[in-house]
Specification:
alpha+beta, Jelly Rolls, five-stranded antiparallel β-sheet, three-stranded antiparallel β-sheet, elongated
Length: 146
């Protein structure tokens, strides 16, 4: 069994953003030369997640509206009070809403690899979902198999 790992660097431009990383992940799968196994796409960030769905602009707008509706920015989040009072290092963002959104999205996706290709559905894309942009993000892609 082989394991191939690579980190993908991305930068978001807006607060909630769906960044299609499908071609980046596909490149790592090809680079690995692994024919059969699986690929794990992982975000080690607590305000950015990984999900799969269709890359259609109006649908992505629907997803953004859904996240804003389910977890509104203007809600009171205890985390924000903690951030404001904390004496240790902080980036100064009141981003409790971003952490809550991430809880709904999740940190990773695993996709089967067969004959050197990801077994994605015809309309499936892999997204890095930014919920606290704009920021630089590092995504780990790990291909495991033979």
């Amino acid at each position: 069994m082989k394991i191939h790992k690579k980190t993908i660097e991305k930068e978001s431009k807006s607060q909630i953003e769906f960044l299609d990383i499908t071609s980046d992940v596909d490149g790592v799968v090809k680079e690995s030369k692994i024919q059969n196994g699986q690929v794990l796409v992982f975000s080690g960030h607590t305000t950015a997640g990984i999900a799969m769905n269709e890359n259609e602009s109006l649908l992505l707008q629907d997803f953004q509206r859904l996240l804003y509706r389910l977890v509104p920015i203007e809600e009171r989040y205890s985390h924000d009070l903690f951030e404001l009072k904390r004496t240790t290092r902080s980036d100064g963002r009141s981003n409790g809403h971003s952490h809550c959104k991430n809880l709904l999205i999740g940190a990773s996706e695993t996709i089967p690899v067969e004959n050197g290709k990801m077994l994605l559905g015809n309309l499936q894309s892999i997204f890095l979902i930014e919920m606290d942009g704009s920021r630089k993000r590092s995504i780990v892609v790990q291909v495991i198999g033979e």
